[in-house]
Amino acid sequence: MKTFIFLMCTTVFCLTPDYSFSQEKIIIEKDQLATVDQVFKIIKKQTDFDFIYPRRLFKNAPKVTLNKGEITVSKLLEQSLSNNSISFELAEDNTILIVQKPIIDEVKKFQKIVSGIVTDNNGQPLPGVNVTVKGTTTGTTTDFDGNYEITASEGDVLVFSYVGMALQERTIGAPNVINVTLLEDSNLSEVIVTASRRAEKLRDVASSITALGENQLKQQNIAQFDDFVGQIPNISFTGSGPSNRQVILRGISTSTFSQSAKVATYIDDVAVGSSTALAVGSFNRPDVNVFDLDRVEVLRGPHGTRYGANSLGGLLKYVTKSPSMVGDATYDVRIGSSSASNGGFGYGLDASANFPISDKTAIRVSGFTRKDPGFIDNIGTGEQDVNDTDNLGARLNLLSNLSDKLSLKATAMFQNVDIGAQTSVRIDENGKPVFDDYEQERFSPENIESKLQLYALTLKYKLGGVNLTSTTAYNIMANNKNNDWTRIEGGTNSGFTGVVTFPELVEMETAKWSQEFKLASKDNDKFEWAVGVFMTGEKSFLKSLEQGLLADGTPGTEVPSWAEGQGTPANMFSSDWQSKFKQFAGYGELTYYLSPKFDVTGGVRYTRNETDFDQTLGGLWMFNGGEDLVYPHVNSKDNATTFMISPRWRVSDATMIYARAAQGFRPGGPNSLTPAAIDGGAEVEYGSDKLTNYEIGVKTTAFNNRLFFDLTYFYIDWKDIQIRQISDDGFAFTGNGGKASSKGLELAVTARPTDGLTFSFNLGTLDAKLDEDAPSVGAVKGDELPNAPSLTHGGSINYEFPSKSSSTFNIGGSWRHVGDRLNDLGENRITMEGYNTFNLHAGLSFKNYEIQAYAKNLTNTIGIESISNYFSYGTVSRPRTIGISLTAHF
Q1: Rounded distance, CA 690 to CA 666, Å?
Q2: Which residues make beta-bridge pairs with 414?
Q3: Which of 104, 446, 681, 858 is surrounded by the most beta carbons within 10 Å?
């Protein structure tokens, strides 16, 4: 009886008079007799409609005669239900409710106001809990004291959901008060990820992936890329500081300063940064502030179909938090401060707000400003803590369900990062700092400024039995960087009269638009498919100017005799690169379910690239009488076809075994070459490189989902590898080498052995090496690829103490181990010793406030993150940093 009451309540209060389904047709393939349940399945398979009804309603119902041909959904339902005194109604969420006709008047008697309080297992009130009537859009949220009030009917089911807590359902009976205690969610495997371009449970994804959710990011005080790498197996990086990182996955690397990206960076479903080496795509990528993000996902290995260029090693994806349409407006504010050992002080201010405009539209805005303390002292100028970092940014998300079939999500964001100096120090031949650990010797500023703007619009439309998605985006990624060449040029002994410093300014920017259309079938138990097209266009520039300056900062004019007539130190070297890049790709993917336990996914992607390049070089080092050299226009084209195939076997509800073969590629393009380099045989263009990744993995849960285990073995075959080379006159260019390979293991374990205690562990092993000689850089078969540690591992632990008061206390820590690595390929390679870092955190929550304290790199370990042979500079890890923050929820 209560089930019928629930259904009728939903009908009375939540239905609309929209009977658009009366015109939608389906096909009956043959004459047949079918049960009412079977009729519903036929409709679900060919349309977007779903059904809510008590199954016992048709237990003894006669079968329905179906005639071959077309018939509207409403006509078929009328025919099927005519003998059962049953009616049907269409709800707003495309759900068809099957109800018993005589109950309508009776339902109205049971409408009432239900109230109560929601607490955790320690008795602490929980604000912001979503309380909804199951199967409807009716809902509310709890206030600061955990109280709620909702209008419903006896027999309705109330659903209580809260992040980090197990979902709970309660059926409304005679009492008007329902108090609920939510328990900590011990299910570790139900994380939803989208790195494979579809929403899937983490344990169901047939690839090696790590997902860091919002709670984990907050708990461990993670703010940027450097903070979360310890939770990811087989990841490393190079670069000169935050927002200037080259990300490396599974050892796919050939140089410390490779210019073209091998790991793609996405914000939601938008690729950001340059696809080419001409705008230094490997480094000109955003280091996204993770405040108010939903999660960070790292997909290891290429996908083959859904992602294209520059995802050789995998994918780094930042997923923004969608607005909530439920309840009242909410606000979060966090303030904090920090201090670095042997360094300065920092601060942070973050704020976010969610505004439900209606039950179909909501807006979420967030902003942040943060100053990270510097810790590098410059003995060349006498300045201290020169590498302090200023972060400023904001995000806006709009989500709107324009109709039952059409939804819209719009995103706008910007982020500026200003770093006072590069975090690099002088390194000797043994990989050790020449001066003290955190001292550098520079004679002119080496600040870095990174800017990101992103605008995106995603439309989703339900077309009968398929879903159409359109993603339109535009982003600008800019990076300005100063380099000090004084030591390289010889300083005061350079031969240039009065010249004491040689600063260089490098400016680069990529403006990028992209458009993707994807058509995908509904999820079903037979086969699923998706096809799509992707288009992008980039316009980039990279400009540099190196000057010789006198002590007063003005340009020098006098030159030594060997440079007479060649210009002045006012322009030692200048370059102006202007490039355009276009890409078109089409892809298709099919998943076929051979049985409920075994399926195979396969797909193919075709990509066509075109690059146009113009360059002008000038300055004294061109030896052209002070005149600029304008090079002929270069047009470069290439294409690639990649595939993916992945069988998946669900051994049981707890265990899944999969295999995977997928390809990735990186576009080729024009080189920027000096006349001397061209005369020396350097290629004007270089080709694309491609790799094939083979892997097999197992994912399983145990002990009532308190343990999640993910193990993967992979082998990568990499051909025509792009290698950064140095010409005889000292300028860099890119060429194609031979073959390389990488193989290894990846293990991720998460456990919740008792309530309140959570533990995670990850491990990565690597054997990445050249399979053929690379004489252009002096490397031979068997040489280890650069920046590919043979062993990495990390993890975290957190314990939340049980409490009977209104407050909770948690304490925990995390660690990261990076094994020994070698720097650039070639002779005189330097070994970077492995290192360990340990972090601690503690937090106290009470009412709607949180206080957190943390210590990063607790043992104050100095780790050498990367070394460049050419400059003899090494990037060092951040020293011990201690901080505290206060968060308020309104």
Answers
A1: 7
A2: 394, 453
A3: 446
**Residue 443 tokens, joined:** 């004679």
**CA atoms of 726 and 747, how far apart (whole Å):** 38
Cβ count within 10 A of residue 127: 19
Closest of 886, 887, 877 to residue 342, by C-alpha: 877
This model's pTM is above 0.85: no
Phi first, then psi: give them for residue 883, nearest 5 degrees: -150, 170
Each residue of 126-177: pLDDT tens digit? 887 888 887 666 778 888 778 898 888 887 888 887 766 777 888 888 788 8
Q: HSE-up of 89 (CA within 13 Å, CB side)? A: 17
d(CA 843, CA 807): 10
Residue 866: which residues within 8 A CB-CB, separation 6 or more? 237, 238, 239, 256, 787, 823, 832, 874, 875
Handedness of CA 198, 202, 203, 207 (dihedral sign): positive
CB 791 within 8 A of CB 275: no
Give CA–CA dist 358/353, Å, rounded.
15
Q: What is the number of other CB atoms lying within 10 angstroms of the CB of residue 375?
A: 23
pLDDT band at 730 (very low <50, low <70, confident <90, very high): low
**CA-to-CA distance for 747 and 759, rounded, in angstroms?**
14
Q: Which of 231, 222, 244, 226 is nearest to 877 (CA)?
A: 226
Angle, alpha carbons 340-342-345 (nearest 5°): 40
Residue-level pLDDT at 173: 81
* Six-digit token string for 728: 């005889």
Contact (Cβ atoms closer than 8 angstroms) between residue 700 and residue 656: yes
For residue 22, give the 3-state DSSP assignment.
helix
Angle (CA) 310 314 320, round 5° = 95
Reported as type and span, the H/E element at residue 816 is strand 807-818
Alpha carbon distance 410, 270 (integer Å) = 12
Cα 791 to Cα 784: distance, rounded to the nearest angstrom: 13
User: CA-CA distances (angstroms) from residue 144 to 141, 180, 488, 848, 889?
Assistant: 10, 15, 62, 7, 9
- Say how far apart CA 481 and CA 768 lie, in whole Å: 31
Both tokens assigned to 153: 């009917």
Averaged pLDDT for residues 490-510 = 90
Residue bearing tokens 């020169």? 386
CA separation (Å) from 75 to 40, 317, 422?
13, 46, 71
**Cα 522 from chain centroid (whole Å):** 25
Residues 330 and 364: their CA atoms lie apart, in Å, by: 10
Judged by phi (left if over 0) then psi (alpha if -120 to 50, else beta), residue 431 lies in left
Instruction: Inform me whether the pLDDT recorded for 19 exceeds 50.
Output: no
Q: Which of 818, 826, 750, 753 is nearest to 786 (CA)?
A: 826
Residue 626 has pLDDT above 70, yes or no: yes
Strand locations in 243-324 (E):
244-249, 263-267, 270-271, 293-300, 314-320
The structure tokens 């996204």 sit at 288
Question: Do residues 400 and 377 lie in contact, with contact meaning Cβ atoms separated by under 8 Å?
Answer: no
* 262-271, 474-483, 537-546, 801-810: segment of lowest average pLDDT: 801-810
CA angle 846, 852, 856 (to 5 degrees): 165
How many CA atoms are closer than 13 Å to the CA of 883, on its beta-carbon side? 27
Block residue for tokens 């870095």: 448
| Token couple for 747 | 């293990």
pLDDT of residue 702: 87
Which residues sit opposite 111 in a β-bridge?
153
Pairing of strands 527-546, 598-618: unpaired
- Yes or no: say if 388 and 346 are a contact pair by the CB < 8 Å rule: yes
Report the DSSP pairing between strands 50-52 and 95-100: parallel
Q: How many residues does the chain have?
A: 890
Are 883 and 339 in contact by the 8 Å Cβ rule? The answer is yes
3-state SS, residue 218: helix
Going by C-alpha positions, the residue among 176, 171, 204, 170 that lies closest to residue 189 is 204
